[in-house]
């Protein structure tokens, strides 16, 4: 524990605040809180306690700055800014965007920096420097106490709260007036522990160096999941073991092995489909033509709505329009928008009469070109990845497929307003969480192109094998003289030495939440949200009000406990870890806490 400014934190007259989880979201809440306190010129003594699992305050587990450089972001540098234009202004004048911060440390052209994908460690350094700036400029009335520990439980004591952690018993900390929980995936049960049991089953790959270091060279490895986490695991076991990727003149990559890699890695997943990769080039600037702001507002006013009946048809039409707008342009035609869908259909029919060889838009086959296949072979997957890479490099202005897939990124913000706090009826809510959430992530929030090229290079080198990607399951069995067996269709079987779970845990009813969230449920301080609109569905998230405050078992709002970020998923959608605007409970919380302290100060004076 580190103390700043003074050592009066156990004084009962001090207003004590806790922020649990100091990744980006905890940092944002801290920044807004001290900005509010300074702007109000509060003289009341305040102690802010920051609880983080490790020393990477501001970066957290995901962006810790000791990660290897091959673990990179999946969106471009220009989208990253840990500062906000909100008032009151930050308490420091050094509020550089990530690109401006990078420019201050390199001679690279700004345009290149904007469109590049930085390492997560580099982003972590930026966040930690921002956090340090706030530390250095704290008002004298604020004591800052940093705890490197994991909070395990919270209990209510009158109108205040008692925190217990791995390093602090109940009585070693003051009682807290306000608590904000920004625990990220840790709250959903993610295991970021530094010291893991080194066995053949790896349930969580981070930190990669420690979690995967015991996998033997020449081992046969099964990887459950084929998303961003799978890519991290594959790169950790190849590039992270001194293997090298080299680019050819055509831009293709080849892999030079070190001999320290596994013999083969076999990814397998529910859909068996790769993510659509991305470049850092700017999105097209076309507006939404069909799911307009007016239509979104109308849907929001009709809550609860059915996703498949009331929203999905419009999404499909929006994607179809984007697809044909680009396809027409590629062939020197203009696709004219009209709210009359019959007119749009007539244009499309006439176009395909003139160009019968061009691929028509079919929603289902666009999402899954192997729709009716129960299994895929290695060559089919490799060819499809090449197609996706080609579409990504063309960009949404030149690739119909890319244009259609990129449409969801434009829709998602408005959709969040509909989805949040039970805006979908219960059957739709369940369907979206269990099916469409992953689908839209796959087509819209994929890895950088360079990472997908690396996966393709490893596939061509025979180190990554896609034979079991679809329709396979893993069982623990020594029947083939190994840890387990990966079973595919057509009686395919593969002996496996190590099994990696590359799926990040999310809130859901069947998942056991982290110990902290479990304690809130057990003590009645929280309850799980239940969507009872036209049915019943429990997404697994703790119930909160529209300001993020936890709702207790008895239905009363816990004024002192607020959730922010990933812990709210299920009631909110798309809690981008670095976004300062999406589902921004931090600013509401900071203003409310500062106002409460201000009121207390007036009473005492």
Mind sketching the topology for me?
Blueprint: E1 2-3, E2 15-20, H1 24-39, E3 46-52, H2 98-103, H3 110-115, H4 120-136, E4 142-148, E5 151-157, E6 160-165, E7 178-181, E8 201-202, H5 208-212, E9 220-224, H6 228-236, E10 244-247, E11 253-256, E12 264-268, H7 293-300, H8 307-330, H9 341-354, H10 363-367, H11 378-394, H12 400-419, H13 426-444, H14 449-460, E13 473-476, E14 484-487, E15 493-496, E16 498-501, H15 515-522, E17 549-551, E18 557-563, H16 585-604
Parallel strand pairs: 2-3, 2-7, 3-4, 7-18, 8-16, 9-12, 9-16
Antiparallel strand pairs: 1-4, 5-6, 10-11, 13-14, 14-15, 17-18
In the CATH hierarchy, the architecture of the largest domain is 3-Layer(bba) Sandwich
Q: Mean pLDDT, nearest integer? A: 93
CATH superfamily of the largest domain: FAD/NAD(P)-binding domain
What spatial order of strands do you see in the largest sheet? Answer: 1-4-3-2-7-18-17
Given this structure, which CATH class of the largest domain is correct? Alpha Beta
**What is the alpha-carbon Rg in Å?**
25 Å
Classify the secondary structure makeup into a structural class.
Answer: alpha/beta
Low-confidence stretches: 1-8
Number of strands: 18
Protein name: FAD(NAD)-dependent oxidoreductase
Summarize this, please?
This protein has 605 residues and is α/β, with parallel strands linked by helices. 34% of the residues lie in helices and 14% in strands.
